[in-house]
Design brief:
The chain has about 270 residues and is mainly β. The protein is built from no helices and 22 strands. The strands form six sheets. Strands 6, 7, 8, 9, 10, 11, 12 and 13 form an eight-stranded antiparallel beta sheet that branches. Strand 15 and strand 16 form a beta hairpin.
């Protein structure tokens, strides 16, 4: 009987919904890693990673520590929890299309950090998924998932995330910054629902009389005001154009809310 190695692979943080996911992979006779769902699916049935999911980073658990997995010579409180366990290697490119991207930091930013991080929006907060060293004001991130994912460059100090640059959308073709036009505001009418695996997701759909609030991102979530849901469930706000937006409710938990942009009057969900 041939013996083989089996590992745990993981996307710690999805970029299109809450949480993350773990699965298994085994090493076949050609030294290729084959994923499968332990106690769930066979290798030929594996569908955790598909065209609908947004995986910014995928790591493989290893037996030994990987000294280059986490930033070096930094106090533990300045290292995000995701990188405090060093028995990981980056295998993102084995599963999804990736891009190497360079972030140029504005000269006005106080650069008393040697490390820049990238975060994605997950469960109503930004969660760090990758790091890179800063050299001459630039940081280059390797093998980033590029399936139409919104990333936010951040610093991490004293267990806190600090925005460092505007968010951007990464696709196989380009990196597009999302910068609100604060000098130009217009009324936008929004149909309130979320997108989940490319399906309109009506869980938590607001009821008539509920109060909702729209925010845009400019180094923090800034309110555009509140609206009370009417019978047609259309919400109208005056907001800066070209921004990244988030709707929150006063009547139910917001942890499943997704971020979006507005293109030609329509919400584009991320």
């Amino acid at each position: 009987m041939r013996q083989t190695a089996v590992a745990v692979d993981e996307c710690p943080t999805w970029a299109h919904r809450n949480s993350g996911h773990q699965w298994n992979a085994f090493l076949d006779a050609t030294t290729r890693w084959i994923p499968f769902g332990g106690a769930e699916t066979n290798p030929d049935e594996f569908d955790v990673i598909n065209d609908s999911v947004k995986a910014p980073k995928i790591f493989r658990h290893t037996f030994s520590f990987q000294e280059d997995f986490a930033p070096k010579n930094i106090a533990n409180r300045d290292i995000p929890p995701i990188f405090r366990q060093k028995n990981r290697i980056d295998v993102t490119s084995e599963y999804v299309n990736t891009s190497d991207i360079t972030i140029a930091l504005d000269n006005s930013i106080e650069l008393n950090n040697d490390i820049l991080y990238l975060a994605v929006f997950n469960a109503d907060q930004w969660k760090i998924v990758s790091w890179a060293s800063i050299n001459d004001g630039n940081a280059t991130f390797k093998q980033m998932g590029n399936n139409n994912i919104v990333y936010l460059p951040v610093f991490y100090r004293d267990n806190k995330i600090i925005p460092a640059a505007p968010p951007f959308i990464l696709t196989p073709k380009e990196k597009t910054p999302i910068i609100p036009n604060l000098s130009e505001k217009e009324y936008v009418s929004l149909k309130y629902y979320n997108k989940f695996y490319d399906i309109e997701w009506h869980i938590g759909r607001p009821k008539t009389g509920w109060k909702m609030e729209l925010f845009y991102w400019d180094n923090q979530w800034i309110s555009c005001g509140t609206q009370v849901v009417k019978a047609d469930r259309v919400l109208t706000f005056k907001a800066p154009t070209d921004g990244l937006y988030l709707i929150r409710s006063y009547n139910f938990a917001n942890t499943w809310q997704r971020i979006f942009t507005i293109e030609n009057g329509e919400q584009v969900w991320f």
